[in-house]
Structure formats: structure tokens, C-alpha cells
Amino acid sequence: MLGDGGLWSTVDDLARWIAVQCLADPGDRRGDGPRVLDGTSLQELQLPQALVDLDGWASAQGLGFASFRVDADAWQGHTGSLFGFRAIHLFRAADGLGVVALTNSSDRPN
């Protein structure tokens, strides 16, 4: 529908995407075939590159992922919305922890 939207997915697919992002150790290998990105490249994509707020940073933008600091923990992820749908996925690669939320709504939660 739009150049920046229209990706359809499921919670299971996004959970698998997060699992791949958590394989960020330089020695991690994925399957027997060629790799699109190795662990070192994934680490680089996940690093905050531009701070949104310079005072102790609560949010930053990386190469494809946003970073959000919650207390001492930094989370990476991405949000999306399109005419009645909203989504977010966040992960902490070092812990192998992730969360996915999909809603049928255009409103942001308070």
C-alpha cells in the first residue's frame, strides 16, 4: 500500500526474526548454506549510532533498529503501523530475550 509499509507477518515469524538477531556472537553460525549476515555484522546493525536525546540517552537510532534504554538495559527493535494495525518487536541480543506485540488499532497506548 505504501513504500514504507505493508509488511505482513505473524508473531511466530517475528519471534524467529528476533531469534536470528540474538545470534550476534562473531562465532555464531546459521545452517549449512551461505550466510546473509554473520554475527559481527548483526552486532554492528544493533549498535546505537545517533542519540535522540543527549542527556544520558533513553533512545537512539541504529542501522535499521531503534534502541531504547529501560533502566540499565538497552533494547533494540522496530515499530510499525498502517491504517488500523500497530506492531512492535524488541529484543536484547545479549540475553536472547525478545517481545512481539501486534494490535488491531491505530491508537497509541497511553
Number of strands: 6
Name the shape in a single word.
Answer: globular
* Secondary-structure class: alpha+beta
Largest sheet: 6 strands, antiparallel
Strand content: 25-35%
Q: Give the low-confidence spans.
A: none
Encode the helix/strand succession as letters: HHEEEEEE
Rg value: 15 Å
Count of DSSP-assigned helices = 2
Structure in a nutshell:
This protein has 110 residues and is α+β, with helices and mostly antiparallel strands.
Write a structural description.
- The protein has 110 residues and is of the alpha+beta class.
- The protein is 17% helix and 30% strand.
- It has two helices and six strands; from the N terminus they run ααββββββ.
- The protein has helices at 11-21, 39-46; strands at residues 50-51, 59-61, 66-70, 73-81, 86-92, 97-103.
- Strands 1-2-3-4-5-6 form a six-stranded antiparallel beta sheet, with helices on one face.
- The protein starts with 10 loop residues before the first helix and ends in a 7-residue tail after the last strand.
Write a concise keyword list for the protein shown above.
single chain, alpha+beta, 6 strands
SSE inventory with pairings:
Elements: H1 11-21, H2 39-46, E1 50-51, E2 59-61, E3 66-70, E4 73-81, E5 86-92, E6 97-103
Antiparallel strand pairs: 1-2, 2-3, 3-4, 4-5, 5-6
